[in-house]
Each structure stands twice: as structure tokens, then as C-alpha cells.
Specification:
The chain is mostly helical. The chain has a single domain, classed as Orthogonal Bundle (Ribonucleotide Reductase, subunit A), CATH 1.10.620. It is built from 13 helices and no strands. Helix 3 packs antiparallel against helix 4, helix 4 runs antiparallel to helix 8 and helix 6 runs antiparallel to helix 12. The chain is globular, with a radius of gyration of 19 Å. Bound molecules: fe (ii) ion (2 copies). The site of one fe (ii) ion has 5 residues, from helix 4 and helix 8.
Length: about 290
């Protein structure tokens, strides 16, 4: 296992070396006529009967709304992570490398949230917020997460959204502004993933069996709730589709289910390897759409 202090020191150097990358985004670049806002294969309705009935303009418009929903989800989860990281730091040595890296990560998440907010505005979309009960549920439960839950939930939200951003940043059919934002985010998140994996492995080795049992369930339920709200039905209303019918087709869409499973593969494999997903919690991950 990697020494958490050494990993944090390496990540601090890498963060310092790449500081300011988001300042190089060209926010004044105009959108290209007819270009996608995410690879079409990642749009939830791709390949469904509804998709077949839509013209190119409506499909592109749906990709714009779905990108706004993903960016909104990005802001919301980053706000949640910041709260959990705040508690992690407050209980530690206040000046060691791990605390300083966690502070650096909070600083990067703040910039990401600002960057996503700016992207949503530039796309002339509104923010998609999760339903009130999810917000309420998080404020009630987030104190229970502890170090295992904090870094497992961090890892989950970071790894699940990594693949779509990696594919978007390389895809020449996608709007250049979206590709730039994805590139900045993917680069910085790779460091956060490394930090979360190291902290989580360390926390699992030192946790009591009772704590691990609680955290397994908590993280499984969180994955389920997180994924249930990944794509709000209101994106479909924004493009003139019946939200209930469109959501039903998206959830039943074998293509969409497959890309969600692919998105979850790395996190599910890692969490299983370190013992945070045992056969008893597997059902949460299946219901979340992240595991076969
Ligand atoms: Fe981020
Ligand atoms: Fe992050």
C-alpha cells in the first residue's frame, strides 16, 4: 500500500505545477452550428424509438440539456464533497501533507464548480438541481459517513463521470468549449481519484469490522440515490418530449444501461477489491445500474 503522506506530497507538487489551467479556457469562442454538446452515443435516449423520431437539431438540443444536467450534478456533488472533506480535515493534523492536499482539492472543486456554472450559462441552459428530499437526506446523513464513506463517495462521483468526459474531450464532433472544460476537469480529477483511493485503502485497513459493515450499506445506498438522479426527467421536457415517456425509454435503453455500467466498472472493481462492496451490497450497485 502507498504511504498516504508520500502520495499527498506528490499530489501537492502536481497540483502546484498545473495551477491556472482553467484560466486558459477560451470562454469567448462561439458555439459551432450543429455540433454536439456530448458524444451522441452518451445521450440517454440514443438508439431508442424516440431518438429515431427526432431530427438532428432536437438530438443536439437534448445533448445540450444533458450536458447541463451533468455539469449541474457536478456542482452539486462537489458542494457535498467539500462538506465531507471539511470534516475530514478538521479532525486531523492541521498542517500535514494530507490536510494540505485535501485543502488543495477543495480549492480545485471550487474552481470546477465555477467552471461548470459558467459552462451552463454559456450554453444558455438552466441549472438542474436534485429534488429537495435528496438535499435534505444528505444534510441529515452526511455526518455518518466517516473517512471510509467520505472517500468512497468522493471516488464514486469522480470515477463515474470520468469516462463521458474523457470521451467528450477527444471527440471532434463535440463543441470545443465543452471539450476544453472536460479536459481541465479530467486532469485535475485524476489526482483526486489517486488521493481518494489511497485514503480509502488506508481507512479500510484500520477500521473496525462494525464500522466497515455500516459504511458498506451507506455507500451502497448513496450510489443508488446518486444514480437515480443522474439524469432528471426535466431535460426531456426542455426539448419538448413527454418527460415520463422519455425517462422510461432512457431507463430501458440497453445502450444507455451499457454505458452506465462501463462508467461504473473502475469504481465497482476497486471498491470490491478493498472489501467495501461485498456480495450482500451488490444489489445496491446493480440497482444503481453500475454493476452487472
Ligand atoms: Fe471536480
Ligand atoms: Fe474531485
Amino acid at each position: 500500500m502507498h504511504d498516504p503522506q508520500l502520495v499527498a506530497e506528490r499530489l501537492l507538487r502536481a497540483s502546484a505545477a498545473s495551477a491556472g489551467v482553467d484560466a486558459r479556457i477560451d470562454w469567448d469562442a462561439s458555439f459551432e452550428e450543429g455540433a454536439w454538446f456530448m458524444p451522441p452515443e452518451w445521450v440517454s435516449l440514443y438508439g431508442t424509438p424516440l431518438w429515431q423520431s427526432m431530427d438532428h437539431t432536437s438530438r443536439v438540443e437534448l445533448s445540450r440539456q444533458e450536458m447541463a444536467a451533468l455539469a449541474s450534478g457536478g456542482i452539486w456533488t462537489e458542494l457535498c464533497l467539500m462538506q465531507m472533506l471539511g470534516r475530514y480535515m478538521a479532525g486531523r493534523d492541521l498542517i500535514d501533507a494530507r490536510t494540505r492536499y485535501a485543502l488543495t482539492e477543495v480549492g480545485e472543486e471550487t474552481r470546477h464548480s465555477l467552471m461548470f456554472a459558467r459552462l451552463i450559462s454559456a450554453m444558455r441552459c438552466r441549472a438542474y438541481t436534485p429534488p429537495g428530499y435528496v438535499n435534505h437526506l444528505f444534510s441529515l446523513t452526511n455526518v455518518v459517513y466517516g473517512r471510509i464513506g467520505t472517500f468512497a463517495v468522493t471516488l464514486l462521483s469522480e470515477e463515474v463521470n470520468d469516462l463521458v468526459q474523457r470521451e467528450a474531450m477527444k471527440d471532434e464532433r463535440v463543441q470545443p468549449l465543452v471539450r476544453q472544460v472536460c479536459r481541465v476537469h479530467v486532469t485535475e480529477e485524476a489526482r483526486h481519484v489517486s488521493f481518494a483511493r489511497t485514503e480509502l485503502t488506508h481507512a479500510m485497513r484500520t477500521a473496525s469490522a462494525a464500522n466497515v459493515r455500516v459504511q458498506r450499506e451507506l455507500v451502497g445506498v448513496t450510489a443508488f440515490v446518486f444514480m437515480a438522479h443522474r439524469m432528471p426527467a426535466t431535460v426531456y421536457r426542455a426539448v419538448g418530449l413527454d418527460p415520463a415517456a422519455a425517462r422510461q425509454q432512457a431507463l430501458a435503453n440497453p445502450h444507455y444501461r451499457e454505458i452506465l455500467r462501463r462508467s461504473g466498472h473502475k469504481a465497482v472493481t476497486f471498491l470490491t477489491e478493498i472489501g467495501l462492496i461485498s456480495p450482500r451490497q451488490r444489489h445496491w450497485w446493480r440497482r444503481a445500474g453500475l454493476a452487472p
